[in-house]
Write a structure and sequence with these properties.
InterPro entries: Gfo/Idh/MocA-like_OxRdtase_C, Gfo/Idh/MocA-like_OxRdtase_N, Gfo/Idh/MocA_Oxidoreductases, NAD(P)-bd_dom_sf. With 422 residues, the protein is of the alpha/beta class. It has helices at 13-25, 40-50, 61-66, 84-93, 107-120, 134-144, 162-171, 183-186, 189-199, 242-248, 250-254, 258-261, 267-276, 364-378, 387-406, 412-421; strands spanning 4-9, 30-36, 57-58, 73-76, 96-99, 124-126, 151-159, 203-211, 293-300, 305-311, 318-325, 328-333, 338-343, 349-353, 410-411. The protein has 16 helices and 15 strands.
Length: 422
């Protein structure tokens, strides 16, 4: 079978250590032939790992996309606000595109990207990896098999995890909505996509409430310095003390968060980075402004109603779901790989246990990459997480943020019309 070739635009944690890493473990499927990354250390590391010649290493993605088309596809893994230009230019150049989520924090850009993929007849696949999980795939099958009857209501909880929230949304790249995306878009467009998929209908109305309550200056313990390594007196009691957090927390290690702190993961190099770098800051003395808890209510055309809760204040990074139908109800925990199905007519309960790998969104990252390669080999137009379906879930998330800020219920059809006319 043909090996799919790719150019990598953005060699950060997701691009360099998840999607490009698939080429390392599956060289029969994917080969990275060029990289564009402004950080020289990360760029050189990717080049070394994938055997990319110097002339195919670019500091700026514009330089790469000015060249003649050199691969089958482009993996666009830049920051949230930097997806639009490389995605649209790559589509124009003839590349199929895999784009990290979210597509953009701008509703009009999201709509335009979806339209361009259709115009040029290219695959624009969004990294909504949960659609590729065995957990949500099984739930979708159970719904389609009519095991629950007609869907009535869904409750969904996104447990962000105190440690994940501190890393990504307090100290990290997604801490400020004015620089990246609102948290409900960045973290939960995954969930909006899944809820849209499971509901099997278009969303009509959105309302939302939430705030930044805990991770702010007024809650700092007395005497806590700006940086953990500046002699913090609370180091032994604080769950967020940076050296302990990055060297000892098992989840931080499993998710490779240390690579965000320093490309060189030697202990000395990491400690040096924590002295003055963003990941060494006290979580109460950062410049973050995104929420640490939020609820979203959705109404769909088929009268299904949904309530989703996102919270930073959980031990685990997990997703739990409760689906209520006319014939039965379903409760599930994605990270445990457990689904409990109750039948109203018989009173019987069925427990389904699935294998869930401990990393990569419970194995979804790998499954998504396998499907992306398959879609390109087959030149398929039926893509499970293509732009045509991802546009709506992104708009739902942005509508939720508007509702949270304004206190008003948002009509999604009007919201989309507004985006299309901008």
């Amino acid at each position: 079978m043909k090996v799919i070739t790719a150019v990598l635009i953005g060699a950060g944690l997701r691009g360099g250590w998840v999607y490009a890493a698939y080429a390392q473990s599956h060289p029969e499927d994917l080969k990275i032939v060029a990289v564009a990354e402004p950080d020289e250390e990360r760029r050189n590391l990717i080049a070394e790992v994938h055997g990319i010649p110097e002339e195919r290493c670019y500091q700026d993605y514009r330089e790469l996309l000015e060249e003649e088309k050199m691969a089958d596809c482009a993996l666009v893994c830049t920051q949230d606000t930097m997806h639009f230009e490389p995605v649209t230019k790559a589509l124009e150049k003839g590349y199929h595109v895999l784009c990290e989520k979210p597509m953009s924090p701008d509703a009009s850009e999201i709509v335009t990207m979806g339209n361009m993929a259709e115009k040029y007849g290219r695959i624009l696949m969004i990294c909504h990896v949960l659609r590729y999980s065995s957990f949500f795939s099984r739930i979708k099958n159970l719904i389609e098999e009519d095991r629950l009857g007609r869907l009535i209501s869904i409750q969904h909880i996104e447990e962000v995890g105190y440690w994940h929230h501190a890393h990504s949304f307090v100290r990290g790249n997604w801490r400020r909505s004015d620089e990246t995306s609102p948290m409900i878009l960045q973290k939960c467009c995954h969930d909006m996509d899944i809820l849209l998929w499971l509901a099997g209908s278009s969303c009509t109305k959105v309302s939302s409430f939430g705030d930044l309550t805990y991770f702010k200056e007024e809650n700092a313990p007395e005497g806590a310095p700006a940086y953990c390594l500046d002699g913090c007196p609370h180091r032994d009691q604080c769950a967020f003390y940076a050296p302990k957090f990055y060297f000892e927390h098992p989840k931080a290690e499993a998710d490779g968060f240390i690579h965000a702190v320093s490309a060189d993961t030697d202990r000395k190099a990491v400690l040096e980075a924590l002295k003055t770098g963003p990941y060494g800051r006290c979580v109460f003395h950062c410049d973050n402004n995104v929420v640490d808890h939020q609820v979203v209510n959705l109404e769909f055309e088929n009268h299904v109603t949904v309530n989703m809760t996102m919270s930073a204040f959980t031990e685990n990074c997990a997703r739990r779901i409760h689906i209520m139908g006319t014939k039965g109800e379903l409760r599930g925990n994605m990270e445990l790989g457990e689904i409990e199905l109750s039948d109203f007519s018989t009173g019987e309960k069925e427990i389904i246990r699935l294998y869930t790998p401990p990393t990569g969104h419970s194995g979804s990252d790998t499954n998504m990459m396998k499907d992306f390669v398959r879609y390109l080999r087959e030149d398929s137009v039926q893509v499970r997480s293509g732009a045509s379906v991802s546009v709506e879930s992104h708009l739902i998330a942005l509508a939720a943020e508007r509702s949270r800020v304004t206190g008003e219920t948002v009509d999604l059809r009007e919201f989309r019309k507004e985006a299309e006319e901008r």
